[in-house]
Model the fold of this input.
Amino acid sequence: MAEPVKKVGASFKNNLTTDTSGALQNKLRSGEKADVIIVSAPAMDALEKEDRIVPGTRVDLARGLIGVGMRPGAKAPDLSSPEAFKKAMLAAKSVSYVDPKAGGTSGTYMAGLFQKMGIAQEIQKKTVFRNQGSEVADAVAKGDAEFGITFTSEMITNKGVKLAGTLPDAIQLPTIYTGAVPAGAPNPDGGRAFLKALKTPAGLAAIQEAGLEPIQNPQNH
Done:
C-alpha cells in the first residue's frame, strides 16, 4: 500500500512511515501517534481487540494477490487451475520466491502450498530464494530465475518483469489491507479525510496502478 498512500498523501500535510504490518502495530503499542494506520486485516483485528483504533473508522481499502512474474517476451505459464500451475512449476527451469525463513507472508505460504501439492522436493532443487518480494522480481529481471512468485504489487513496478497472471482462486492467498484512525490520533478529522481520499477515483486508480485490487465497496467495521 506504500505507493498509493504516497500519491494520495501528496495533497496532505503528512509524515509517512512505511514498514511491515507487525512493525506498524508495535509502533502504536509503544506509544507512537498517527492520524491513520494501514495494515493487513489480521493486524488490524489485533489492534481492534486492543482498543487501539477509533471505533467505526476501519475500512477495507485494497486486496493484494500473489502472482507469477516472468521476463518480458517469455512464454506465459498456464495458471488456469491449481493442476495447471503445478505442471508449470514442475516444468520451470528455476523459480524464485521469498525465503520462509525471512518471515515473508508469500514465501511461507508458497512453501506450504508446494508441500500440500506434493512437489516441495522438486521445487526446492530449483528455487532461488530471496528475502523480499522486490528481490524476487529482481531475480527474474536479471535472469536468475525463470519465474518469480510474490505479491503482484512487488513485481508490477519492475520494468524487467512481466506479470504472467495471479494464482488460481482455489490456491490464492488474498491479503486485505485496511485503514483506520488510531486512538489518540492528533488529527482524527485529517485521518478520516485521508481514508476518504483513498476511496476517490484518483485514490482507487493509484491503488490499481500499484498492482493492488481496489475495494470499491469497502466493509466498514
